[in-house]
Write a structure and sequence with these properties.
Elements lengths: L15 E6 L3 H5 L2 H9 L5 E4 L5 H10 L4 E6 L1 H14 L7 E6 L5 H5 L6 H10 L5 E5 L2 E5 L4 E4 L1 E5 H11 L5 H16 L3 H6 L3 E7 L2 E2 L4 E2 L1 E5 L21 E6 L3 H13 L9 E5 L2 E13 L2 E13 L3 E5 L1
Parallel strand pairs: 1-2, 1-3, 3-4
Antiparallel strand pairs: 5-17, 6-7, 6-16, 8-12, 8-15, 9-10, 9-11, 9-15, 12-13, 13-14, 15-16
Helix pairs in contact: 2-6, 3-4, 8-10
Length: 322
């Protein structure tokens, strides 16, 4: 692949585009990735962004030149921001197939879809024109807040999930090791109902409807949804995420920390226990009404508190791994 020149590349190369987030953790640590990827494609087909407001113009440029396969290189936050922008600026009938390249710090979404090579190797395989190793259709989750904010992504959390993210971001060590240390602290506290666990699993009043059916709960401690199986550091609670390309896996619990932390081994293996304290649904639409504003997160980005959220799905996108 390295010996291949622009003149000898296949016709299919002109249909490939790449968007690279310069600020993503892996890209910052490996600046040579960008130069090597730019050398593999014709000028203008690799676009590098440094800020969120640059994403829509970048996608519009790639759409204009006829890109049919789009590689998105960055972390989980890049996925959410880029695919939200894609929905805005790329007509549904013309949307490209997506290759998520793990260029961030943790890369839960890309790895959950099977992308375990670095971005350069993935692009080399893509340019070579060989068959895709993995092809799947997944919808994006779409959230609408009471304030009118609309975001799309593949992993939604609130409750303890948001508190976990904030604790992780406050830590000195990003990445899987830092996240594992946060989990270890929370689990240790949860087993004895310690102060940290009581704060992390603090219940909040809520009314939930799943596909127009009201759930018989009035508060929650943990809530999450996904269109990929994994939520991070090996945990795969969304075992129904790939069951239907028009639905998502919604998980909810009102259990205290002492029960939930004992559920973690099953959640890590992707199993739903018969005596589970977590309720699981394969849903098309979920509405949440909170008594007090609650923060929420898509793809590891945390958003402002709201009193009402609606989750549904977009039309399925085609994801592939070369």
């Amino acid at each position: 692949m390295r010996a291949q020149t622009r003149a000898t590349r296949t016709r299919g190369v002109t249909e490939i585009g790449a968007l690279i987030n310069r600020q993503a953790g892996g890209v910052r640590r490996n600046p040579a990735w960008t130069h090597r990827m730019q050398a593999m494609l014709p000028p203008g087909q690799v676009v590098v962004t440094s800020a969120a407001e640059e994403v829509v113009p970048a996608l519009e440029r790639l759409r204009t030149i006829g890109v049919e396969t789009l590689m998105v290189c960055g972390g989980d936050g890049t996925v959410g921001k880029t695919l939200t922008a894609l929905l805005e600026c790329w007509p549904e009938a013309l949307r490209p197939r997506i290759v998520l390249a793990p260029g961030g710090t943790v890369n839960t979404i890309a790895k959950s879809l099977g992308a375990n090579a670095d971005p350069v190797k993935l692009l080399e395989r893509l340019v070579s024109g060989g068959p895709m190793r993995i092809e799947t259709e997944r919808p994006l989750l779409r959230a609408r807040s009471a304030e009118g904010l609309v975001r799309a992504g593949m992993i939604f959390v609130n409750g303890v999930g948001v508190r976990f993210l904030r604790m992780y971001y406050e830590g000195a060590r990003p990445g899987a090791l830092g996240a594992a240390r946060v989990v270890a602290r929370v689990v240790s506290s949860g087993l004895v109902s310690g102060r940290l666990a009581r704060e992390m699993f603090s219940p909040a009043a809520v009314r939930i409807r799943v596909d127009d059916q009201a759930l018989d709960y009035d508060h929650f401690t943990a809530m999450a949804a996904g269109t990929v199986r994994h939520i991070g550091i090996g945990f795969q609670p969304f075992s129904m995420a790939d069951r239907d390309p028009h639905r998502f896996h919604f998980a909810f619990s009102d259990a205290p920390s002492t029960r939930l932390v004992r559920e973690l081994p099953a959640l890590r293996r992707g199993r739903i226990r018969d005596d589970s304290c977590v309720e699981h649904h394969c849903a098309k639409r979920v509405t949440m009404e909170f008594d007090a504003p609650e923060p929420w997160s898509f793809d590891a980005d945390v958003y402002a508190p709201t009193c009402e959220l609606t989750l549904d799905t977009t039309a399925p996108l085609r994801f592939c791994v070369p």
